[in-house]
Design goal:
The chain is of the alpha+beta class. Helix content is 36%, strand content 32%. A 4-stranded antiparallel beta sheet has the order 2-3-1-4, with helices on one face.
């Protein structure tokens, strides 16, 4: 099991558009083979911050996710909307 968290910060004024793009993306990702969970959250105190919790059956499933047209399309649609790169953290499930 591969668990990944991502913290992303939207540029000022882009949060609502990013939220809509995530709402379109999530159902597609959840249908990808090997995806166990893919949940996006918006910070209650800072609407420009997003937290993404991802869980995959394997490293291959994560790799597949990154290769999908819907994930690439999300990247293209949000180009220039985020302040810097995502803060990614990987975890191994232990219990």
């Amino acid at each position: 099991m591969v668990v990944l968290t991502a913290i992303l910060t939207a540029n000022e004024g882009k949060g609502d558009k990013i939220e809509k793009l995530f709402q379109d993306l999530v159902p597609k990702v959840l249908k990808d083979p090997g995806t166990v969970n893919y949940a996006v959250h918006r910070n209650a105190n800072d609407p420009n911050k997003f937290f993404v919790y991802e869980c995959y059956e394997s490293q291959d499933a994560l790799k597949y996710h990154g290769s999908t047209e819907h994930f690439k399309g999300f990247g293209q649609a949000t180009r220039g909307m985020f302040a810097g790169r995502a803060e990614l953290t990987f975890y191994n499930k232990i219990a």
